[in-house]
Amino acid sequence: MSYKSTRRQWVKLWVNEWLDGTTRFELTAAQRLLWVDLLALAGRSRFPGFIYAGDGGDGKRVGYPVAYLAGVLQMDEIALNNTMKLLVDKGHITLEESSPECYIIGIVNWEKYQSEYMRQKAYRKVTTKVTNHSTSRLLVEGEGEKEVEGEKKRTQDSRFALPGWIPQPAWDDFIEMRQTLKPKPTEKAKALLVKKLDSLVREGGNAQAILEQSTLNGWKGLFPIKGNGSFQSERERDLKAALNAGEGPSDYARKRV
């Protein structure tokens, strides 16, 4: 996954992995500090995810001298070299020597440290200009609980979007029926239902027919079409009669309970 070259004011740090993951036990405190400093440098870089000086006249990337990096990070050169090689061994960074003692540093899995907007951008229907207002903000220590919960809710609300290949009316009828059952479908549950429907369609099923089948039968989940579909079930006839009478799928579902 690639990102537009633009300097960032922050990168994400996954707290559980940082406090309880293997990095805590594989690296010393000084080595962990260097790892975080490299994340910050990669975020500030003109080439997000990479730390190097720029492109030379021949089009090749030019790395930073170890002495320069040691000065910026206020580290001993030998300690810096040893720690970077350890981070390579642990799968945190890549290290390429563009010339003797000049390195191009890359952050492994750089996309993990981006905002939710940037991580989900490829899956969104509408392309939105990325600004400080449209990009999810990293919460910092000291912010109120209400702000944290509000940010979490906004992220959850924007997580689900119905793919264009799913017929909206059939989906709406199914979700309306599901709202009458317990538990009601969450945004995560809807995403899993879409994943299940995609799997059934790839096996030769018809999205609309699968959704209508579950709506007709009052099923919580989605399943392959029963039978050959050439006959009309009693439930289907009842539902069509209810729809013709002006009732919705949820009214029908309540009658079946």
Keywords, separated by commas or semicolons:
257 residues; alpha+beta; Arc Repressor Mutant, subunit A; 3 domains; four-stranded antiparallel beta sheet; two-stranded antiparallel sheet; 12 helices; elongated; disordered N terminus
Summarize the structure in words:
By secondary structure, this protein is α+β, with helices and mostly antiparallel strands. It has helices at residues 15-20, 23-26, 29-44, 66-73, 77-89, 116-120, 145-157, 168-178, 187-202, 207-217, 234-244, 249-256; strands at 50-51, 54-55, 61-62, 64-65, 93-99, 102-107. Strands 1, 4, 5 and 6 form a four-stranded antiparallel beta sheet that branches. Helix 8 packs parallel to helix 10 and helix 8 runs parallel beside helix 12. The model is unreliable at 1-5 and 132-145 (pLDDT under 50).
Short summary of the structure?
With 257 residues, the chain is an alpha+beta fold. It folds into three domains: 15-112, Arc Repressor Mutant, subunit A (Orthogonal Bundle), CATH 1.10.10; 115-157, no CATH class; 168-256, no CATH class.
